[in-house]
Design brief:
It is a single chain. This protein has about 290 residues and is α/β, with parallel strands linked by helices. It is built from 14 helices and six strands. The protein has a four-stranded mixed sheet. A two-stranded parallel sheet has the order 2-5. Helix 10 packs parallel to helix 14. The longest helix has 17 residues. The termini are far apart.
């Protein structure tokens, strides 16, 4: 299964996505590819860190869009009636990944080289995608709490394919616009955010708006995402209302990461994201306490 807007796919991709299933008895093959450091911001800032903290597997592209899977796993997917939910839209990738991991199927990654597709500036309108992907992520948390609460640490998964460096197309970002949208969103959504976030998170968020230079702390960001998960779990208002308020906060975190990584090479970018992932893992007890 591959994304429809790919411009970097080669015949080798098909072999790399399916041979671990045919030859090594894996059930689910996720992609591992090089992307521009400003591409895949929803993955980098939310989905990869949260999925890793929850389910304990270093799956770098849980919503990569390009997967190989076994007949056994396909049969299992078909037992799930999710086609009227956000899973049937932008949430399909995280649903496939999480369902495989949480139900004990054998998961690995294959290195595919560069992913070049119709990338977008994070400050452009990604709100529908963000809302649907995070909605599916939280829906899966409701389905598998007994699984993710038990996970105390994370481990890598097997990686196949030969890693090599590739040229990547630039992705333009407008940092000042993202910070402006973040600041305006916190101001305009203040009353709603007070209902969603803990008192401590809200106070730190307001301080972040006026920070100079602008910095959005990793620990705060992890608590905020967990606050959103808890708010949806407790049904303090409709999930759609809750998640629509996340967009400006997401833009603020992405702006902060872009600033951090402005002079970074590919290895340094991964090191920066490793730090972010560890913040989510360290903060996981906060999620479990609030959830219960």
């Amino acid at each position: 299964m591959v994304d429809s807007d790919l411009r970097s796919i080669t015949p080798e991709w098909i072999d790399l996505l399916i041979s671990p299933v045919l030859e090594r008895n894996f059930d689910f093959v996720t992609p591992y590819y090089l992307r521009h450091k400003y591409d895949g911001t929803i993955t980098n800032s939310i989905i990869y860190p949260v999925t890793r903290a929850l389910y304990g597997r270093h799956i770098r592209q849980p919503i990569g869009g390009d997967f190989g899977f076994s007949g056994k796993l396909a049969e299992f997917y078909l037992t799930k009636d999710v086609w009227e939910s956000d899973v049937a839209r932008f949430g399909i990738d995280i649903w496939m990944t999480t369902t495989a991991v949480a139900n004990g199927f054998r998961v690995c990654q294959s290195f595919l080289g560069a992913k070049i597709h119709a990338a977008k500036d994070p400050s452009s309108d990604l709100s529908a995608m963000l809302t649907q992907v995070v909605s599916a992520l939280f829906m899966l948390m409701e389905e598998y709490p007994d699984k993710w609460k038990e996970v105390k640490s994370s481990v890598p998964v097997p990686l196949f394919g030969f890693e090599f460096s590739v040229g990547l197309e630039p992705v333009n970002v407008n940092v000042s616009r993202m910070i402006e949208m973040f600041s305006l969103g916190v101001k305009e959504l203040n009353d709603l955010l007070k209902e969603i976030l803990s008192i401590g998170s809200m106070l730190e968020l307001v301080e972040t708006v006026t920070s100079e230079p602008f910095v959005f702390n990793d620990d705060l960001w992890a608590r905020i995402i967990y606050d959103y998960a808890i708010a949806c779990h407790r049904k303090i208002m409709s999930a759609d209302h809750i998640l629509k308020t996340l967009t400006p906060l997401y833009l603020g975190k992405v702006a902060s990461l872009v600033q951090d990584m402005a002079e970074s090479n590919a290895i340094e970018v991964e090191e920066r994201l490793e730090t972010l992932c560890r913040a989510f893992e360290k903060t996981k007890p906060y999620l479990i306490e609030g959830w219960d």
